[in-house]
Amino acid sequence: MKEETFPAVGLSLVIPVYNEEGNVRLLWERSVPVLDRLGVSWEMIFVDDGSTDGTFAELGRLHSEDRRVRVTRLRTNFGQTVALAAGFDRCRGARVVTLDGDLQNDPADIPAILAKMDEGYSVVSGWRQKRKEPFLRRRLPSIIANWMISRLSGVYLHDYGCTLKGYDREVIRRLHIYGEMHRFLPALASLAGATAAEVPVRDHPRRWGRSKYGLSRVGKVLADLVALQMILRFSSRPRYWFAYLALPFALLGGIMAVWAIYGYVRGAAGGLPIVLPGATFLLFFLWIYLVSLGWFTEIVALTGEGGRGRLLSGVKEIRLDR
User: Fold this and answer.
1) Do the Cβ atoms of 17 and 55 come closer than 8 Å?
2) Contacts of 171 (CB under 8 A, 6+ apart)
3) Is 0.85 surpassed by the pTM of this model?
4) Which of 98, 144, 150, 174 could form a disulfide with 156 if both were Cys (CB 3.0 to 4.6 A apart)?
5) What's the pLDDT score for residue 268?
């Protein structure tokens, strides 16, 4: 993360937006009274994720009216994960709260998030107990995904998909996210020793614009669940992950090799499949390749320099910070 160039504040509100022209001002109007009552200094960071409507122009007007509003615009639509990472890269608060820009999250729930953090939790997630969304298309896939993420990570939450979450700044500094990983942040934070909890929050129907999510995200979530499994269990020793992947090839190759040797010893080589030698060689090659790839990956993981800086390089176009 880059060195700070602005004074630190007590709370940073990070809000990714995409084509939310009709919502951003209402969100600002609803948030300011809540934030002012907290008794701490605060900033509101909007990340315009390549909107094609008048969202950025409206954010520019908000920045002109209230200098506590900071705006970062991405060159194109990178998705919520990158937008959140861009906001995290800019935030200066001792605590960070993330919020959707579509008014479905209620800013009035922010004090409850912070109050739970006061109990000693470094990550607090909102739990939308009464969701205003279709059951089969949105809520049922979410229930299944929440159960799977909880089982894989050991961090049991009812609603990983709720954007309204609170984080200690030190947790944010250690998170490196990509893909659709924004929904897994509490699980990833557990790698840094973060303790997580959840509080019930309100869920409002969308008033303006349309949802950016649908059934198309299911495939992305499943792919990222596999990545999450690797990160949580094998991030420090990735060679074991590749060893597990290589094991079926080694076993099948060994069986086929024994079959071929047995056939030659018994003099029944003519009855063996013609592709047997080539298939055996291919399976052993894949086994050795995956094991070697695991070792190279571990060397890169131990000696390379990853991080949010490279992920975000080149994606920012305009910043309204001052």
Assistant:
1) yes
2) 122, 123, 189, 192, 194
3) no
4) 150
5) 60
